Amino acid sequence: MFAKIVELYRALNRPPIENESFVFEGSCTPATIELIEEVAGLSDHFGYFEDKFIDGNNVKVDFRLASSDYAGRFHASVGEFIAATPSLNFGDVPERYYVIDLDYFSGDGTPPPVLISLLELCRFIRAISSLAAEYAQGTDLTYGENRLFFVLAADGKTPAKTLSIVVRIEERLLKYPLVHVRLLEVLVSEAMKNEIHIDERRMIMRLAIADALSVPDESTELFAYLVSHWRDVLSKYRHNVLAFVNQYSFEKVRKEIATAEIEHATKLSAVLGDIAGKLLALPVSLAAVLILRKASTAEEFWILFAGLWAVTVIFIGILWNQWLQVERLRSSFEIIFGQYDGSTFPKKLQAPIAQARHAIKRQYRVLKYTFGVFGFLALAPGVAALYVWGTTLPIKLSDLCVLLASGATFRP
Question: Where are the membrane-spanning stretches (predicted)?
């Protein structure tokens, strides 16, 4: 609807507008006359003809323009557009408007640079309003006041301070380029609410804005100062985010290194504890060697002999299983610490990584020697049984078979 009115205004060679009306008198093409009739059929709230006279190609019209943003309004310039549209202070751009001196209609293609700056400023206002810790309730378009609040944190010397920003667009602000408005939009986007550390990033941006606005004196218009010093705010934000991310990452890595080291050392100690508990039976097995030497019958001898070898086999199996578990722990340790290549981290992290690797390697070496000793002790009962058999009971395997077949009693 509004597009038809703009089309008619352009077809009539953009006559001057006074008191929200334009008058045209002269010759028109048939297409323009057809357009006049089409506009005359529109609803009055889009505008109406106060006078319309058509005689062949001669036309005289007096058209009253609409006065609402909903229907669409004509503005003499960008400055007049800003002054007549309070919703811009809230970042809300009317859907329909026409700027006369630019000959630009909101339904046209790419807007002129000055309007691009205005639209970018409105994007900035919408994002900054969503980011504000607290802002004016409601949208009072009567006064066109959008009031935002940011809190300047206490620094030990001064208490926390609340800064009130009245958002008021002025034409002079359009000369300041607003870079990375998309960053603000991403920070306040609902789609980002579940992202990690998004609340911290929003708070860092709020603090950066408050910190930048704490510089000017009380007579300074804070919103104009914020727009003109937006690059300074972004610089503060990037610096603070990098400091936060680096501190978090270093602390996180340091904690993961310490946790992995403690868990690995604990599990290795648990393996050694399990073995120590099971090998407490070794002294009893070694004592059975003395009983084997005093066996009075063949049955007694071979039962004790088989028992000692059974103990040896069981202990060797336990040790072998536990050693496989140690190897799995060592492999998992290498996988965990493989992601912490010391050369890719700062020096303050390289030392803990190197110390953790050295400590675990030393514990592994001690455990390896301990397993060697335990393995030797586990073989002791079986070797001792063989020694006793070879020195005190030289019985042949054929005699043993005869003995087992006959069930006879044998005395050494």
Answer: 301-320, 366-389
C-alpha distances in Å from residue 301, one per residue of 37, 288, 341, 375, 386: 126, 11, 60, 25, 12
Chain centroid to CA 333:
27
Which two three-digit tokens encode residue 380? 């002791």
Q: What is the pLDDT of residues 4-49, one digit of tens each?
A: 899 888 888 889 888 888 898 888 888 888 898 888 888 888 888 8
CB atoms within 10 A of CB 11: 16
Mapping DSSP to helix (H, G, I), strand (E, B) and coil, where does residue 357 land?
helix
- Tell me how crowded residue 143 is: count the other CB atoms within 10 A of its CB: 8
Question: Using N-to-C axis directions, what is the helix angle for 298-338 and 282-293, rounded to 10°?
Answer: 160
Q: Give the span between the Cα atoms of 267 and 278, in whole angstroms.
A: 17
> How would DSSP label each residue in 243-311?
HHHHHHHHHHHHHHHHHHHHHHHHHHHHHHHHHHHHGGGHHHHHHHHHHHHT--SHHHHHHHHHHHHHH
What residue spans define the domains of the chain? 2-108, 118-244, 249-406
Q: Which residues pair with 148 in a beta bridge?
A: 135, 165
In CATH, the number for domain 249-406 is: 1.20.58
Comparing CA positions, the residue from 155, 148, 154 lying closest to residue 133 is: 148
- Give the bridge partners for 287, in sequence order: none
